Give the backbone structure.
Amino acid sequence: MKILIDIGHPAHVHYFRNFIKIMEKNGHKFLIIAKNRSIVPYLLKYYNIPFILRKNYPKNIFGKFFQIIFTDLFVIKEVKKFKADLLLGFSGTHVSHAGVILNIPSIIFDDTDNANLAHASYKNFASSILTPTCFKKKFGKKQIYFNSFMELCYLHPKYYKPDSSILNLIGIKKDEKYVIIRFVSWNSNHDLGHKGISQKNKLKIVKEFSKYARVFISSEKNLPKELKKYEIKFPPEKIHDALAYSNLLFGESATMASECACLGVPSIYHDSIGRGYTEEEEKKYGLVFNFSETNKDQDLSIKKGIDILNDKNSTKNYKKKRNKILDDKIDVTAFMIWFVENYPKSKKLMNENPNYQLKFKEMSKSVKKRLYF
């Protein structure tokens, strides 16, 4: 089978990289189209995944409109040249459009409940839409729910084991606590109207947490000179290792909050709308703490972070909570492989019997041994 995947965000590289490698071993061929955004090309090269780049366009509203048209045309041209049998993407506007025009099935993944513009751009064109069970939007008969989180595509212990050499790389001593703080750019379509954590509180967070732990900052925006010395300086592919051994994540990234949940690390996440998956990771598993962007909630979240850092049993307790996630959730990558290799029969089967996915839930004893590190 020839499969084309459109990748527009660094997280998408992680969602699909294990799927691609396993499917290639099964004899399938891929063409990856990548947006020239952030570290997307870097990560694809690091994981040895060949790709072609699509162009970027201006970020204003007119630029975004023309970007859809011209990128659609580019994707259509590449689909025809590659002679693809199936099109995949996450929130996949362009592959869903190309699929309709060329009469090729498209499978779209999504977990971002509030991405209304993106949903409007693909929901009527996609052949199938796969979302976690905690996803709040309803897309009708074409929607397939899977009981897991997208971050388990790459952080499930079947595919990932943290590398402790990160501690030497960032200069962390034995038993020394550290916090990772994440600030985002708030430039995505679903971020309109959001401001995030105030500049005043960014300084306050670092000052307060520094009393209890080392502080590292990962930021999409340029940091003020007062915070520059805290900026993370290591290869981006090492971020999951850094998260895995940290004592707390604090910030504005839903993806990184969910990554920490899958790693058994507590996280504090700020967003006035939130996400279905971070809400489930709080209410059901107690691994994410969701706060709005109000000044009151920013103050409360700092106090919560200090409480976590002062808890001597924090690490052990949160690792146990992570085990509950792994007991409950399916192996998303294994499910994706089955669903794609057996499509469209797999779609029909999931509509008739959603519990078929439980086949991808069982973890081997050898994998369970990795859960504590």
Notes: The mean pLDDT is 92. The CA atoms of residues 62 and 329 lie 41 Å apart. The first strand starts at residue 2 and ends at 7.
